[in-house]
Model the fold of this input.
Amino acid sequence: MSCNWLFPLLLLSATALPAAEAPYYVAYSAQMEEPGNLEVAFDQVAGSNFLSSIMELECGVKTWWTTEFYLDGQATGGEGAIFTGWRIENRFRPWMGEHRINPVLYVEFEDINGADKSLKEVVGHDVADDQLVPNAEARRDHQRELETKLILSSNVRGWDISTNLIAEKNLAAEPWEFGYAFGASRPLAFAVTPGPCTFCRENFSVGAEVFGGLGTWRQFGLTGTSHYVGPILAWQLPSGAQLMVSPAFGLNGNSHGLLVRFTVSYEMEQIARLFRRPS
Amino acid sequence: MRMALLLWALLATGNPYEGKPDAVRAGAKLYARHCAQCHGLDAEGHGHAPSLRSSTVQAASAEELFHTVTNGRMSRGMPSWAQLPAERRWQIITYLRSLK
Done:
């Protein structure tokens, strides 16, 4: 079933919403969503002939537990737009307080089809040519996958430095696939100015991330894998919305030459209170 | 080791913004952005989030408040704010101290 109607609707809903914090596109830091808050984000990834779109709903359940739900879709030149699946993830921070390295455990279940081009992670032998398969054929490949990550993150003198080790398993008896993501970012100004401002340095963050595949359990290594590197610029608007843009450049012949990623997000504070009985 | 020395140096010298009116105003802006959703715009507290005007909080040293903001009290529902640069955490502390 074609879902051409879905993406304008998602786009309208997302631009009407202001957005929140997202220092990286692929990598995760140890930062959890504040309990009771709901962040709505709309991600887009533009490749040579496709535009992938993701709607994200991220909720802080506890200080140590964040859960997130995704709806994925894509539009490919000459093939129209389709819905490609959904994902649900949970992140757990096992240690209370701040440490030199803060670990977070990540578990995600995804039910997507082979036409998905969200590139939220690269694992195994994922390569750009996988995405040349026509949608009509690729969507018949149904994938139910379990994805786990070990997130290791540090705050060093205003910098966030994060490492993600990824292990993903297609539940249909395929081997574990591995990948990685590294990210580093910092605000342009550490201290804030006293007055309100929109374009001052304190509202901008810069960084970079590197991510790619590491093969499978049977063929671990860099052979036949794809890798990317890209700078990131994020702008926090006074309204609470956040915009992020990041070009990602392919590092070898298996990668897309260029991906342009764009995110708009908005954080709704203490939305959980709306569902509580007055005391 | 280097980080520990830096932290010690920071703590030993206390709040670098102590008594600076601009830092109070900057801290108020950060407080509204990050803290008011739980502690209230007036800092009087809300639900499980305590009042920051209470005698207990106001009697705490700047270093103790900095430690709490940095580490949070995750078992009680307060997140860590270590992702904010130290300068911003000190600006928030400066604002909190001005509520006396």
